[in-house]
From TrEMBL, chain A:
Coiled coil: none
Protein name (Swiss-Prot/TrEMBL): Protein COFACTOR ASSEMBLY OF COMPLEX C SUBUNIT B CCB2, chloroplastic
Annotated GO biological process: cytochrome b6f complex assembly
Pfam families: CCB2_CCB4
TrEMBL record, chain B:
Organism of this sequence: Rhamnella rubrinervis
One Gene Ontology cellular component: chloroplast
Protein name: Protein COFACTOR ASSEMBLY OF COMPLEX C SUBUNIT B CCB4, chloroplastic
Gene Ontology biological process terms in this record: cytochrome b6f complex assembly
Pfam families in alphabetical order: CCB2_CCB4
Length: 299, 296
């Protein structure tokens, strides 16, 4: 009893549920496939438009067919312009009808060019971009020395899980002044291994990241980069502050900032809503332990 | 919704808002442009711009999906109209520049129409959530050390905030150390939540299958599975369940309120969190004798 959804590069990934509890598999196939409407289980009131549409794909791995309208827009648009000037060379002026058609064609081409950009924000769209590792950088993993063992484990695990489960290539967690840095960072050659933490602390001080009040998300960073310590080629950054747990009797506006989690990625729009929600939940793990103890007085 | 039941429990799970936060399409594209400036203004980095296009597209999802079809269709008609109005015969040949321009424009219009059709066909089906029938409970084994309890509570808070999870049960070493969220109401007169019978659970096929494979098991539509009867402590209309093994000594059972409500991303996070929980429990509870869980 599965949803018929086999396609090579789906713009969303539909799941096939296996009835006998085996691991879920997302199938991909290399052929052009027809997706049949699967409304057998839907109730009458939420019937979708039942379209059998051929999911068009070239079958070339790494080629993103959702960009096809953009290429067609560029191609046909330039052909239109060529046609206009080629026609003028023959000393026949363009008729008003032709000018109208060309104007329409050029505006359609412009619209087609923007289609992939709009499509990225639709529900269910997945990005085909891959993260790239910046050349010439090495992975580093450093942690402040005066951290308790339990906190050390938590920090190591949190940085590992963030690098593994999100599109981030670099993670920095700062809790009450203690740092944990992991991933590909742009540390200068002159800084030795022992002074690396100090260098990061100074960078953070310069930017003032410890005092960020709300979540910051920069989904599109230009080539010139944002901050010195970020790896080359960073395109999106997320800064998630770690706020103190709200005191039930206290004023919610006076939440102090205990630290932050900084994630950098080499692809644009790297963190979806869901990713950001999970990162926020992970950041809550590092809230002050003292407030957690007061909650357990009911035990 | 559950405000009344939250007040009953002695352990506050730091929820101050009465409504559940969910990842809906109305979630702002990012948070941060509207934050008030720091009082001492010490953050000196840039503030992110608001992404108007992304917001507008996600709000008008249906309209944007069919927009290319309308644009393409209208252009198609406009080209033909233009041809007839200007007196050129509607012949599809490439002899004159007019015809060539027309053909190119028609090609673009068709591209737009097809693109709109593809967008329409990949619209995800929105499935509504079903409120679980049962009562809220919060049972934690009182003999657990504090770090374990705070870890368990953090896990519950994260999973219930981010995913569609409404019930969480953790069984470790043949005893239930956590039962939190919605649970089935027992038919006894006291009307309390059904407690977890670990011995029956461990003999069931779901538990044994998960322990044997050592991997997460996602039952996306629980009503289709005969093993449903092995989880009587979950509300009867639980829609989806994730069974996450904790090493080889325990299992976490996560019940959700939407069919196929857990995304791949959720599954990946839950399985990594499960590994961490297993490490924490193994660390703190090596030879821990477990008593039967008492209601807290």
């Amino acid at each position: 009893m599965s949803n018929a959804c086999v396609s090579f590069r789906p713009l969303i990934q539909l799941k096939i549920s296996n009835q006998f509890g085996a691991r879920k598999v997302i199938k991909k196939s290399l052929q052009i496939s027809a997706r049949l409407g699967n409304n057998s289980r839907s109730s009458p009131e939420n019937q979708q438009v039942n379209l059998s549409v051929l999911r068009f794909t070239f079958g070339i791995p790494g080629l993103d067919e959702s960009y096809l309208p953009r290429w067609i827009g560029y191609g046909f648009g330039s052909l239109l312009i060529l046609n206009h000037f080629a026609g003028a060379n023959l000393a026949t002026y363009a008729t008003p009808a032709q000018l109208r058609t060309e104007a329409l064609g050029l505006s359609l081409a412009a619209f087609s060019i923007t289609l992939p950009y709009l499509g990225k924000f639709l529900k269910g769209a997945t990005s085909m971009d891959q993260t790239t590792i910046p050349e010439g950088s090495e992975q580093i993993f450093v942690m402040s020395p005066n951290v308790s063992n339990a906190q050390k484990e938590d920090l190591a695990w949190a940085t590992y899980i963030l690098l593994r489960n999100t599109n981030a290539i670099a993670v920095l967690i700062s809790i009450q002044g203690q740092l944990c840095v992991r991933g590909y960072w742009n540390t200068p050659e002159s800084v030795s291994k022992t002074n690396i933490l100090d260098w990061f602390e100074r960078q953070i001080e310069i930017i003032g990241l410890s005092d960020v009040e709300g979540k910051l998300y920069f989904p599109q960073i230009s080539d010139s980069g944002l901050w010195e310590m970020l790896p080359k080629g960073t395109r999106s950054i997320l800064v998630q502050p770690v706020l103190q747990a709200p005191n039930p009797s206290g004023n919610a506006m006076q939440l102090k900032n205990e630290g932050f989690v900084l994630l950098a990625s080499s692809m644009r729009y790297a963190y979806s809503d869901k990713d950001r929600a999970w990162i926020g939940a992970l950041a809550k793990k590092f809230r002050g332990k003292s407030t957690c103890n007061t909650d357990l007085q009911g035990l | 919704m559950e405000a009344g039941s939250f007040l009953r429990s002695p352990i506050s799970v730091t929820h101050n808002q009465p409504l559940r936060r969910r990842i809906e399409s109305g979630f702002p594209r990012f948070v941060g442009a509207s934050i008030a400036a720091n009082s001492d203004g010490r953050y000196r980095g840039p503030k992110p711009r608001r992404d108007w296009v992304a917001d507008w597209v996600s709000k008008n999802d249906d309209f944007v999906r069919s927009l290319p079809i309308y644009v393409g269709g209208a252009s198609l008609l406009a080209v033909l109209f233009n041809r007839t109005v200007s007196g050129v015969a509607p012949v599809a040949d490439a002899s004159s520049s007019q015809s060539r321009a027309d053909l190119l424009t028609l090609g673009l219009a068709v591209t737009n129409i097809l693109s709109g059709l593809v967008w329409l066909s990949i619209r995800p089906k929105s499935i509504s959530m079903i409120s679980p029938e049962g009562i809220e409970c919060q049972r934690i084994n009182p003999q657990l050390p504090t770090p374990v309890v705070s870890e368990l509570l953090w896990i519950w808070e994260s999973i219930s905030d981010v995913t569609c999870c409404r019930s969480l049960v953790v069984v470790y070493d043949s005893s239930c150390i956590l039962q939190i969220g919605f649970a089935a109401k027992s038919s006894d007169s006291d009307g309390e939540a059904v407690s977890v019978d670990t011995s029956t659970l461990k003999q069931g096929s779901l538990y044994q299958g998960v322990m044997k494979s050592g991997a997460q098991n996602y039952l996306a539509n629980l009503s289709l599975y005969p093993g449903r009867s092995e989880l009587p402590f979950l509300p009867s209309n639980t829609q989806a369940v994730i069974l996450q093994p904790l090493g080889d000594r325990g299992i976490a059972i996560i019940g959700g309120d939407t069919i196929r409500g857990f995304t791949t991303s959720d599954q990946a996070w839950i399985s990594l969190i499960g590994e961490k929980l297993d490490a924490t429990l193994a660390n703190y509870l090596e030879n821990f004798p477990f008593a039967v869980v008492d209601k807290v």
